[in-house]
TrEMBL record:
InterPro entries from the UniProt entry: PyrdxlP-dep_de-COase, PyrdxlP-dep_Trfase, PyrdxlP-dep_Trfase_major, Pyridoxal-P_BS
UniProt-recorded Gene Ontology molecular function terms: glutamate decarboxylase activity; pyridoxal phosphate binding
Pfam families: Pyridoxal_deC
UniProtKB keywords: Decarboxylase, Lyase, Pyridoxal phosphate
Cofactor(s) annotated in UniProt: pyridoxal 5'-phosphate
Name of the protein this chain belongs to: Glutamate decarboxylase 1b
Native species: Amphiprion ocellaris (Clown anemonefish)
A biological process from GO: gamma-aminobutyric acid biosynthetic process
PROSITE patterns in UniProt: DDC_GAD_HDC_YDC
Family, per entry: Belongs to the group II decarboxylase family.
Record bears the keyword Signal: no
Amino acid sequence: MHFCFKSSNSNKLTNCRLVLDLLPAKNGEEPTIQFLLEVVDILTNYVKKTFDRSTKVLDFHHPHQLLEGMEGFNLELSDQPESLEQILVDCRDTLKYGVRTGHPRFFNQLSSGLDIIGLAGEWLTSTANTNMFTYEIAPVFVLMEQLTLKKMREMIGWPGGEGDGLFSPGGAISNMYSVMIARYKYFPEVKTKGMSAAPRLVLFTSEHSHYSIKKAGAALGFGTENVILLSTDERGRVIPADLEAKIIDAKQKGYMPLFVNATAGSTVYGAFDPINEIADICEKYNLWLHVDGAWGGGLLMSRQHRHKLSGVERANSVTWNPHKMMGVPLQCSAILVREKGILAGCNSMCAGYLFQPDKQYDVTYDTGDKAIQCGRHVDIFKFWLMWKAKGTIGFEQHIDKCLDLSQYLYNKIKNREGYEMVFDGPQHTNVCFWYIPPSLRGMPDGDERREKLHRVAPKIKAMMMESGTTMVGYQPQGTKVNFFRMVVSNSAATQSDIDFLIDEIERLGHDL
Ligand SMILES: *Cc1c(COP(=O)(O)O)cnc(C)c1O
Ligand SMILES: *[C@@H]1O[C@H](CO)[C@@H](O)[C@H](O)[C@H]1NC(C)=O
């Protein structure tokens, strides 16, 4: 550690520097630059090691261990300033005890990978440190957002890329926007008079749906009982006939069906609902159709795979998270809306201190009033920069490669001894499977086997985390006991990493 550098006007070492020595302090340039270069050094080292397969994915510690403090690293906040040298140690240790989500063997989340251009974009964004709410203070970023949203709408297939949209703090919030604007479309008076101005409204979504729609139902005053779950087939796709039956049933009870959520790439199975068939029903009964492409939206960039979303252009709104399948650093999620102006209609409050109508520029670029937030983080720049750097074609290659890798995994294990697939023929990169340890292989199906199998994936996962070699998710679903859900969105992953995962599951699970 060499952060106690020489003072500029004497040859003896001064005391270690403190934050007060940095800009805006007088003569603060030199220590500031030195400090930042040290930070960059820590970060670039971390980046380099993240891509090195001999590095562990994580160095697991229990919460109480981290809270008690590790050697030289203490989470407690202090009244007195710490030296910059200690601050650098804190930076290094924060990364050390974290999880390397960019590691080629990190498969735990739908968001993974570490895109270098995206990272640079995030650094720039923090350096600019501005707020998306007005053109006044974010002129370049606001225009980038408008332009990128238009491009995304073109990919959805809305004529001329017309429509509306915003980047939001994640898919759950983007989904919530869709419910809000659907309600505003049919019952605008709810904005001023509240839910008593509307009949009892019901929302429909897949039983495999991410919990965010239920959460939106609760948060927006619909009530979770008015979120009706639709049955799915064995691959997790909504059955359109079930939707129609449930709409008719709701109407007979005197309720008002409002909104249907179709999923393009469900979180666990990666299932794509049949959008065209659902759209037919929505048109027939005059319902808002939202397509949740938080996970699957990225496939629109692939000529080979975009057919899985066919019919998406008939949606009234679409959620699409570039921070998942497209590898954009967290967070980056868009809500896209076919009808122009409706986001503003639904959410604007025209705060006089931000959105003065008499500014010298075209104030339609003050997009902040469309949001339910006030201040909004700049999520666009890293995405825009990645798009510039890769071209649309680069995203397409990334997506095709991830789907090829998961096909490789599927082919590898579908007939392999000790594996059972949860469903056949994956549509997205989700491959869901049980690993059956030798001790369970001869056992007849029944409660005992189920209970034992239920404990296998969590045990393997715990050992994986303790040894830090790889990470993959697991969960139960409906009546199915815990199974592994493998997903690939990490651009660093290769076939050898898939092979490694399987070897590791077998190594750790063999004696269970
Ligand atoms: C991940 C996911 C969400 C939620 O997105 P966040 O960005 O985590 O809020 C919603 N829907 C689906 C289908 C998802 O996979
Ligand atoms: C729609 O369903 C998907 C998954 O099936 C879910 O992720 C999402 O939260 C739901 N969104 C809305 C707004 O209903």
